[in-house]
Amino acid sequence: MKKYWISFLAAIFFLPLFFGCMPHTTGETEVGVRTKKIALFGQKGVENKVYPPGSMYFFLPFINDWDTFDTKLQNVEMTLREDRGDRRIRDDLPFKTIDGNDIGLDVIIAYRIDPEKATHILQYVAPDDDTLRQKVFRAVARSKPRDIFGELGTEEFYVAEKREEQAEKAKEALRVIFEPMGIIVEKVLTKDYRFNPEYQKAIEDKKIYDQQVEKNRSAQHAVLEEYKRKLEEAQGEVNKLVAEVDGEFRKTKIEIDAYYDRQANTAKAIMAEGIAEAKAITEMNKALAGAGGEAIVKLRIAEALQGKRIILLPTSEGGMNLKTTNMNQLLETMGIKSLSEAQGK
């Protein structure tokens, strides 16, 4: 059984040879292009047909050529290091910044070919992958990005966002150039960069100085903020004291106004009472001045004397003389006599 399969496969491989055809294959990521050197049928030249990857095709030898192009993603690394990248020499991009300083930039550019344009590439761009990479793609990929990255100033190279913006511009510029050729640019990535050693040291010293200046500014800002904070605290304390004094003033004013109102009401009441009494006295005087006034006076005298002891003293001729009599001594003598009579009883 094993010999049978070996014979079968050998027959498949060698059978076309007996009929004058040769096998042509494409790898898993390759496309093939056939060129007719002699046309038995149709036109000679590059056939306008792309043969898909991972297949085998049979053509007559000598009158047909067969070329393949790899469609997988290709990375072209141009770097200072000699142990990596496309070439084992210094291969970074040297150029000048917009302000005139020398700089070297490591770049990686990723590209792939458009499978549908493989016939165009073979006819008008390059006969194979290596020529396409080394003589076509590298030549443009080293030139155009230098112009675009040269638009940056020296200081701007320290800003990652600026480098990324220029990398995107470089990608778009390369895309415009390569797409008509059948080449698709996927990415432009920047890596390390370096200036002239002396200038590099000057930049680093300036960076240190700028960092110190920024540190001092931050410290100054912190002191200013602390001052503002303390000022706000003091202002808050003053506002608090003012509010307390203002509250105390309002409280005292309310109390004084209330006391004033009470005293005013009391004064009004006293005045009203006095007016009423004055009116009563006036009316009383009017009444006393009338015909019954004497009778009323006598009645009031009688009411006042009711229940009182009355002592009659003789004041006629031969009696007591009130002008010369010591009334205090008389009252004292009469009081002692009354007391002794009360004890005798």
Please give the largest β-sheet. Answer: 4 strands, antiparallel
Number of helices: 7
Kindly provide the name of the CATH class of the domain at 74-195.
Alpha Beta
**First and last CA, distance:** 179 Å
Low-confidence stretches: 10-19
What is the percentage of strand-forming residues? 15-25%
Secondary-structure arrangement, i.e. CATH architecture of the domain at 74-195: 2-Layer Sandwich
What CATH calls the topology of the domain at 74-195 is: Tetrahydropterin Synthase, Chain A
Q: What is the overall shape? A: rod-shaped
How many whole angstroms does the radius of gyration measure?
Answer: 65 Å
Q: Helicity, in percent?
A: 40-55%
- Helices and strands, in N-to-C order? HEEEEEEEEHHHEHHH
Briefly note the structural class of the backbone.
alpha+beta
Mean pLDDT: 81
Number of strands: 9
- Tell me the name of the CATH homologous superfamily of the domain at 74-195: Band 7 domain
What does this entry look like structurally?
The model is unreliable at 10-19 (pLDDT under 50). Strands 6, 7, 8 and 9 form a 4-stranded antiparallel sheet that branches. Among the domains are: 2-67, no CATH class; 74-195, Tetrahydropterin Synthase, Chain A, CATH 3.30.479. α3 crosses α4 (160-178). With 345 residues, it is an alpha+beta fold. It is built from 7 helices and 9 strands.
